[in-house]
Amino acid sequence: QVLKDAGEDAKAQKNRTSAVDAMKKNAVGQEIGPLKLTDFTGKPLDAELTKDKVVILHFWSYQDAPLEEPYGQIGYLDFLNRRIDDAPITILGVVVNDRLAEGQRASAVQGAKRLRSFMNLGYTIVLDDGALKQLGDPRVADAKLPLFVVIGRDGKVLEYHVGNYEVDRDRGLKQLEDVAKSAANEK
């Protein structure tokens, strides 16, 4: 029975990986229209925030409880935000929380605000209003968030990364930083 369960688990994992790879292939290189994101009050995201910039989107729950390490890598993302302060790069934390659609919007927003305050995050946090579906939600393939998406100045998806990045001891999310900085330096 154990071998059978292990085999089924391996098959499910392979199918999940294949589905996520297909989503990545579909997303990378595609031009994304206006992103369906709102601020905490429900107003659409101000386009000036992302105009002529490389945009890093970090889709995660952004809730204050329960918190589990590595917290969707938000500490490393904030470290990256502080390192790229002068570059034409914008980082947006995107709240993906079922409570937003279940009539518990105020509770979800308060949880995100408390987390932002507790972690002292310096990057902007917004609410998903359809952007994750627009880009391809890896959860439909039973993959887990976070999802990192890098969009170039030309509006095309450059990176679609499901899960946590490997952490460099000195630079944090080095792979993500390299993709974003390379795109920011392109004219």
From the 3D structure, determine the CATH topology: Glutaredoxin
The whole-number mean of residue pLDDT values reads 88
Largest sheet: 6 strands, mixed
CATH architecture designation: 3-Layer(aba) Sandwich
- Under CATH, the homologous superfamily reads Glutaredoxin
Give the strand line-up of the largest sheet.
1-4-3-2-5-6
The tally of beta strands, per DSSP, is: 6
Low-confidence stretches: 1-11
The geometry reads as globular
- Domain count, please report it: 1
Strand content: 15-25%
Question: What distance lies between the first and last C-alpha atoms, to the nearest angstrom?
Answer: 58 Å
Number of helices: 5
Rounded to an integer in angstroms, the radius of gyration calculated over CA atoms is 17 Å
Highest CATH level, the class? Alpha Beta
Helix/strand class:
alpha/beta
Order of helices and strands: HEEHEHEHEEH
> Into which percent range does the helicity of residues fall?
25-40%
